[in-house]
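Q: Sequence in, structure out?
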Amino acid sequence: MKPAVDVVYRDLDSSVTFSALNDIITKKLEKLSRYTDQIVHSRVVLDTPHHHKHKGKQFRASIELDIVGHPMAITQDDESIHVAVRDAFSSAERKVKQLVARQRNTR
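A: Exactly. Output:
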């Protein structure tokens, strides 16, 4: 089953290339769906939550996966939006692999 995805951009200026990020996000979600076919819905929120003087501009990538019986949320902050997306999906991949391994062990 191909999961439905919502990509939401909040408080981002036009310098960020939205189409390139959309392509990266769909490819990463397709990779996640290879591990399990129980992903019903996914939502990715990209925003700039903080305006720190010392840290500089921070971007946040939040991923919400609705897996049958096991919803999960992953959040990652970084100075680059591309790195934040990459790290968030790496963390999501680890969590999905752990979930699938637990489900196999209980069967």
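Residues 81-106 form the longest helix (26 residues).
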